[in-house]
Amino acid sequence: MTKDDCKKVVLDIIADIAPDEDLTNVKSDVRLRDQLQLDSMDFLDIVMELRKRHSIEVPEADYIQLASLDSCAEYLTPKFNALSAKS
Amino acid sequence: MKPSRIVITGVGLTAPNGNSLTEFRQNLLNGVAGIERREIRYMGSQLAGVCHHDALRHQTKKEVRVGTRAGSISVYCAREALADSKIAWAAQAKDRVGIYIGCTEHGNVETENEIYNISKFNYDTKFWSHYHNPRTVANNQAGEASLNLGVTGPAYTIGAACAAGNLGLIHAAQMLRLGEVDLAICGGISESIHTFGIFAGFKSQNALATHADPAKASRPFDKARNGIVVSEGGCLYTLERLEDAQARGAKIYAEIAGYHVNSDASDYVLPNPVRQAECVRASIRRAGLTAADIHIVNTHATATPLGDIQECEAIRAVFGEGCPETHINNTKSYIGHCMGAAGALELAGNLPSFDDLIVHPTINVDDLDPACALPGLVLNQPRKVAKVDTILNNSFGMLGINSTLIVKRFTP
Question: Sign (positive/negative) of CA torsion B292, B237, B158, B341?
């Protein structure tokens, strides 16, 4: 999985949990909370959907890594790749 | 000191056969039922009353996703009631508004959904939703409405089984009289069709209706009635003290005339006609009326074989044969049993009778059960009557809670 693939995975989840948001111009390097109406429960949704859909676990201490699409990609891409290497 | 006069100034509703009072009333007069077949988890196709209002009229997609069906119905009904009341909402002091919503039960839908969800993950509770608690708290319906409306006054629910719709109105009238709030948004809400448990529970009780034709499935007072059709729905009113309503030139639908609430203290599920009759009598007395002064009696009857007979026994005990101007009807024959919303919706369906002097009938009575043959029963066809100045609304519930609410034509 590339970092761009990873960003798409995260955006697909956000599209479901924040269905009123226009995601066409989300900036990768800007905090998601600064450009979208997302609260702490929504971030728990992202964590839950990563767990449900992709078997990816994000420990609470690492939630800060989900701040922007860029940081999501940095943090999650190795996890996705490690998972696919196992299977 | 004489208690304040309390009046109804707005109505917002969604029923299985209508999403506004106008549409609902028209369908009650035209004999249009709102029952359909619906897939119920674990149980397959069942009869149910389903609401088809546009939730996105007053909520974002995210609010609908995060909240509950009951909360969503509450928001719809509250917004529609406020619009109908023509209250200047932006200028309204939100801390002087109370939201009082009757509910039969709450939390079953969300709990069942979560258990079903984790069953897909080997019952690992780490897949249990973080929304579970705000969705299942007992004040959910009122809380979601307060969030949507920005109401900072008291907002809570009143759990009263299927008597709850009336209780929402009664409690609101009491709070207005106490001066706790200046405006009340009140009534009843139910999302019960989304929980298989209520269907399964009634089925195990042999109290779940079956019929080849969904429109004919809910048939109170008919000899062939065979149980309850479970429905969802909501009806919220705006209630105000008369002087406040008059000061802003509000349209007044009706005045709260009297009410009573009591308990059977006799059985978990079986109604008690003696206590029901006491409840009806007390409400008439508290309204300063006699039985003969009541022009419409809207029955609670749910189409269970025994329950209908027992309510008829209670009504017969109060009204006997000597009330020629009393007309008796039933709204569940159209919409099934909307549980916590039933009392509030059924009252709403009758309010236009003050204007049109027509009593909507009980439909689906092909063969009247002699045990339910009350004088004044309006069957299958609307009845034009000479006078409608009072409406008495019965709503009874499990664990033996009884509520009767009387409203009267407003005269200054």
Answer: positive
Strand positions, DSSP E, B104-162: 155-159
Asked if residues B347 and B404 have their Cβ atoms less than 8 Å apart, the reply is no
Contact assignment for A41 to B130 by CB distance below 8 Å: yes
Beta bridge partners of B39: B45
Question: pTM for the full model?
Answer: 0.97
User: Residue B351: which of B163, B142, B184, B187 has the closest Cα?
Assistant: B187
Question: Model confidence over B350-389: pLDDT tens digits?
Answer: 999 999 999 999 999 999 999 999 999 999 999 999 999 9
Q: Hey, what domains does chain A have and what are their CATH numbers?
A: 3-86 (1.10.1200.10)
ipTM for the assembly: 0.94
Instruction: Kindly state whether A22 is in contact with chain B, defined as any CB-CB distance less than 8 angstroms.
Output: no
Closest CA to B98 of B19, B212, B179, B193: B179
Instruction: Please provide the CATH number assigned to the domain covering B258-408.
Output: 3.40.47.10
The CATH-assigned architecture of domain B6-247 is 3-Layer(aba) Sandwich (3.40)
Q: Where are the beta strands (DSSP E) in B250-329?
A: 254-263, 296-298, 327-329
What is the per-residue pLDDT across B104-138, written as a single tens digit (0 to 9) for each? Answer: 999 999 999 999 999 999 999 999 999 999 999 99
The dihedrals phi and psi of B141, each to the nearest 5 degrees, come to -60, -40
Chain B residues within 8 Å of chain A (Cβ atoms): 60-62, 65-66, 121, 126-127, 129-131
